[in-house]
């Protein structure tokens, strides 16, 4: 029969080196399991609907939707990463040091790709709203695909190099058996914070402030006959572009709200060791669950495509040519 101390250890057979479990009551543990499992399944399923919608229906192959597709891919992968947090409910990592390093590398890659996609979305809306005549020639589907692919490849290469020591020596920085941490040196941590968060977020905020100013001025012009007359010689933004800017603005704001706590904790941390068991991770991941809900709320084409997918109408010949807008 196990002693009380042994029951509190992640690995009872390693009395001297094992980490201690986070002791939770069975009811609390069950609620957390069910909540995280539900979030994980909802995140994967809802983002798969976004991916299938944009990939299948040709009328949705616009530059902006290609960016949403990239974001949905990263969000869908986040849904799988949430399953690792389910393993960590009792504070113990049972999957080994190599899997811990791989988990963190995937997390960093997906995170950076999401932020990179947000930057591209901000640039896309900035050009569409501030330079509408140049938008069709400057922002093409092929160019957007190239930029998205470049961001993903750079993110993979960058973080494999940044975290190479954790891959070469997995578990080196664990203080006990059953812990999952990765370590970045001070310079690497600062550079990663600047390149993965501070600089991209600064660009996003600056571009969207400019977009917001233009959208507000155009909206006021539409409501004012005097302003409308004075703006006769200027280029007006279409309602669809304004609506897209507002919708994607909501996506960006929600993204910042969900991600800022995680990066703020990283910024004020005394060392560069990052643990997998953190509440800020859950909030960060939850953003991936919210994005498809925002699309469903604001985009009629997404609601229509979901209906066609769930009723299996997409299996019909030539369904890819369905008019969605």
Automatic annotation (TrEMBL):
Q: How does it sit in the membrane?
A: Multi-pass membrane protein
Q: Which domain of life is it from?
A: Eukaryota
Provide one Gene Ontology cellular component: plasma membrane
Q: Which GO terms describe its molecular function?
A: trace-amine receptor activity
Per UniProt, the keywords (alphabetical) are:
Cell membrane, G-protein coupled receptor, Membrane, Receptor, Transducer, Transmembrane, Transmembrane helix
The keyword Lipid biosynthesis is annotated on this UniProt entry: no
Where, per UniProt, does this protein localize?
Cell membrane
Xref: CDD domains: 7tmA_TAARs
| Residue ranges crossing the lipid bilayer per the database entry | 30-54, 66-89, 101-123, 144-164, 193-216, 244-269, 281-302
The record's annotation in InterPro entries points to:
GPCR_Rhodpsn, GPCR_Rhodpsn_7TM, TAAR
Q: Which residues form the G-protein coupled receptors family 1 profile domain?
A: 46-295
Give the similarity note.
Belongs to the G-protein coupled receptor 1 family.
Query: What is the name listed in the Swiss-Prot or TrEMBL entry for this protein?
Result: G-protein coupled receptors family 1 profile domain-containing protein
């Amino acid at each position: 029969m196990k002693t009380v101390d042994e029951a509190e250890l992640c690995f009872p057979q390693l009395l001297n080196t094992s980490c201690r479990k986070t002791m939770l009551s069975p009811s609390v543990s069950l609620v957390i399991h069910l909540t995280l499992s539900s979030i994980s399944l909802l995140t994967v399923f809802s983002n798969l609907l976004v991916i299938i919608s944009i990939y299948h229906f040709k009328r949705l192959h616009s530059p902006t939707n290609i960016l949403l597709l990239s974001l949905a891919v990263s969000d869908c992968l986040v849904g799988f990463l949430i399953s690792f947090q389910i393993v960590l409910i009792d504070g113990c990592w049972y999957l080994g040091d190599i899997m811990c390093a791989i988990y963190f590398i995937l997390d960093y890659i997906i995170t950076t790709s999401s932020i990179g996609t947000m930057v591209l979305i901000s640039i896309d809306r900035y050009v569409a709203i501030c330079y509408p005549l140049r938008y069709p020639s400057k922002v093409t589907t092929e160019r957007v695909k190239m930029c998205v692919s470049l961001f993903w490849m750079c993110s993979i290469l960058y973080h494999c190099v940044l975290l190479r020591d954790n891959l070469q020596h997995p578990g080196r920085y664990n203080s006990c058996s059953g812990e999952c941490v990765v370590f970045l040196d001070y310079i690497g941590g600062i550079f990663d914070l600047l390149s993965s968060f501070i600089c991209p977020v600064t660009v996003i905020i600056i571009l969207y402030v400019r977009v917001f100013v233009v959208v507000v001025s155009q909206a006021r012009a539409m409501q004012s006959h005097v302003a409308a007359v004075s703006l006769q010689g200027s280029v007006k933004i279409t309602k669809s572009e304004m609506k897209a800017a507002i919708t994607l603005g909501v996506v960006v704001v929600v993204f910042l709200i969900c991600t800022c706590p995680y990066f703020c904790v990283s910024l004020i941390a005394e060392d560069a060791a990052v643990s997998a068991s953190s509440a800020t991770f859950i909030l960060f991941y939850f953003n991936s669950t919210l994005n498809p809900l925002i699309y469903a709320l604001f985009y009629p084409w997404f609601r229509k495509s979901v209906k066609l997918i769930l009723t299996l109408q997409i299996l019909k010949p030539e369904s890819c040519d369905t008019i969605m807008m």
